[in-house]
Design brief:
The chain is of the alpha/beta class. It has two domains: 3-181, Rossmann fold, CATH 3.40.50.720; 188-274, Orthogonal Bundle (N-(1-d-carboxylethyl)-l-norvaline Dehydrogenase, domain 2). 47% of the residues lie in helices and 13% in strands. The protein has twelve helices and eight strands. The chain has helices at residues 11-22, 34-53, 59-67, 75-79, 93-106, 122-126, 160-172, 188-205, 210-221, 227-234, 236-250, 259-266, and strands spanning 3-7, 26-30, 69-72, 84-87, 112-115, 135-139, 149-154, 176-181. An eight-stranded mixed sheet has the order 3-2-1-4-5-6-7-8, sandwiched between helices. Helix 8 packs across helix 10. The protein starts with a strand and ends in a 28-residue tail after the last helix. The structure holds nicotinamide-adenine-dinucleotide. Nicotinamide-adenine-dinucleotide (NAD) binds next to helix 1 and helix 5.
Amino acid sequence: MQRITVLGSGTMGAGIAQTAAQAGFQTTLFDISDAIVQKARDGIAARLARVVEKGKLSVADSEAAMARLAVTADLAAAVAQADYIIEAIPEKLELKRSTFVQCEQLAPAHCVLGTNTSTIMISQIAAPLRAPGRLIGIHFFNPVPVMRLIEVVMGPQSSEEAYAATLELARRMGKETVRVKESPGFTTSRINALIGNEAFRMLEEGVASAADIDKALKLGLNHPMGPFEMVDLVGLDARLNNVRSLHAALQMEAYRPSPLLERLVAEGRLGRKSGRGVYRYDAKGALIPGSDEV
Ligand SMILES: NC(=O)c1ccc[n+]([C@@H]2O[C@H](COP(=O)([O-])OP(=O)(O)OC[C@H]3O[C@@H](n4cnc5c(N)ncnc54)[C@H](O)[C@@H]3O)[C@@H](O)[C@H]2O)c1
């Protein structure tokens, strides 16, 4: 396995392409326009420059990684020689399906088709493919260069060959894996959404302040971040969507979205990205202590 093609150059795709190029793969990053992929390439170069500044990467290794990274807005050229495709385009079933149908025609027969979907069933994406066993979930975490886990998500038809190739890819990228059967929220999102939703319910009930719930989970349960710090980072709107889709899929009361979470989203308190979520943030993006009023 030498050539990796990443589809979609947004938050996840750019991080995945950077990680693949740094791991020594000939990497091609595809998006729908030249301007978008070029911007993503510039972003990766800027991130690598910061890693070099911190003394964690040599100039030579950074240059070698950039030399292995090609960008294009031509799908046929992007996948023609790929050994492994990682799709990180928007979370829309029809878009993912049509993209993989094209990849199945344009990529070599041995090429594994990996999707970074967070919520869609692998079998649904694979349904229109002639060889659905080629498709597998390869679920990365943000920021990709830093986060160590990949959830490898098996649809009922995902092949053991695709699984073995995914493990090899993960190992060479320096990542750890877990094997997960396709199911709503896989392992991480299902638990995280539950904790996050429950934290909002506790806040609503007046069990403790947001800052104290965060402190309790960090110091008492050894979570690296509190649930409110976390939701401010991922976005309250993204969390609400996730909880809603898990509630619809699992039909469990615990996933019924907390009214407080719904209210904050309706008020535009979306987290760090809007300057205010559960907490407020200053102009430099630092959390303002004592700002956890809801
Ligand atoms: N953001 C996260 O924390 C996270 C974590 C794990 C998985 N995911 C999943 O990764 C995928 C991408 O998420 P993201 O946050 O990087 O999204 P994003 O919006 O940052 O990026 C999506 C990119 O796809 C491009 N795009 C749109 N249509 C395309 C097409 N037809 N072909 C190729 N590219 C196309 C867009 O121009 C954009 O650059 C989604 O499936 C998401 O659920 C996201």
